[in-house]
């Protein structure tokens, strides 16, 4: 079944009819199955082009394929429904804490410099790094553009993922990623799993080589710290549940059990 996405409905209510006509030509529909994916791509391409995506990004979109693996992962995120204790066990919290302490001890000046610049403690950055990719040991094996395009096409959360698709295509235009770049099942990139729109907005060239590469540890850590700071992180203020900075972790991941786990592991890494 194919139907207009919620963003189309909102635009329809907000604009007079004579202003709506261009939007009608550009509002890509969504679908609950992959059957109309190939027909969707040129409609989405027109919307992307109107949003400023150039030829390289458009070509990358048109080369994508519908990702059944991404849809399967999106429908099966069971761990976020676990209790905190079960979540910590399943996600290997004890190993993250142990390895995290070692990583901080091995590079204290690096993490101290990040905290001076962005105000985010080492433990928080290290806990996110460990949680997301096991400290870079597995950053994903899914084509990023196909994954994000599939989620933008899928009706479940098309409003959320369409800006990230536009972001991914702009990253391709800029040469920051390629059409073949691999990431997680939801299209996340690099050591800490940035969604492409966030990579475009908050990515930082931490190592000074003139480009943002989230598979580079320095760039990834600086970008993660910058993201949290820009989302409202207050230097020197607590981040446990009930403290001001706990709410900022929500900007990284909306699952409460994830936020609780990051806060608890971070405190133990920093202790």
TrEMBL record:
Keyword presence, Transport: no
Coiled coil ranges: none
Signal peptide, first to last residue: 1-27
InterPro entries associated with the record: EF_Hand_1_Ca_BS, Lysozyme-like_dom_sf, MltB-like, SLT_2
Pfam families the UniProt entry points to: SLT_2
Alphabetized Gene3D superfamilies for the sequence: Bacterial muramidase
Claim: Nucleus is one of the keywords in the record: no
CDD domains xrefs: Slt35-like
Boundaries of every Transglycosylase SLT domain copy: 38-239
UniProt keyword annotations, A-Z: Signal
Protein origin, superkingdom: Bacteria
Protein name in the entry: Murein transglycosylase
Organism field: Paragemmobacter ruber
């Amino acid at each position: 079944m194919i139907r207009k996405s919620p963003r189309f409905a909102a635009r329809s209510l907000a604009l007079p009819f004579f202003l709506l006509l261009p939007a009608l030509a550009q509002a890509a529909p969504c679908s609950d199955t992959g059957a109309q994916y190939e027909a969707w791509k040129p409609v989405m391409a027109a919307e992307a082009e109107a949003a400023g995506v150039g030829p390289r990004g458009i070509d990358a979109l048109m080369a994508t394929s519908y990702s059944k693996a991404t849809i399967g992962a999106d429908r099966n995120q069971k761990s976020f429904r676990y209790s905190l204790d079960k979540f910590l066990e399943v996600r290997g919290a004890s190993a993250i804490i142990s390895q995290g302490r070692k990583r901080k001890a091995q590079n204290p000046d690096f993490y101290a410099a990040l905290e001076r610049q962005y105000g985010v403690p080492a433990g928080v950055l290290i806990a996110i790094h460990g949680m997301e990719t096991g400290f870079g040991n597995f950053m994903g094996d899914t084509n990023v553009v196909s994954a994000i395009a599939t989620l933008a096409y899928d009706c479940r959360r098309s409003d959320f993922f369409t800006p990230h698709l536009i972001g991914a295509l702009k990253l391709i235009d800029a040469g920051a990623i390629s059409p073949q770049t691999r990431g997680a099942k939801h299209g996340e990139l690099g050591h800490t799993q940035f969604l492409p729109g966030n990579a475009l907005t908050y990515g930082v060239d931490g190592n000074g080589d003139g480009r943002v590469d989230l598979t580079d540890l320095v760039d990834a850590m600086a970008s993660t710290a910058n993201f949290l700071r820009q989302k409202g992180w207050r230097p020197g203020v607590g981040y446990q549940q009930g403290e001001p900075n706990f709410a900022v972790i929500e900007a990284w991941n909306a699952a409460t059990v994830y936020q609780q786990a990051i806060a608890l592991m971070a405190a133990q890494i920093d202790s």
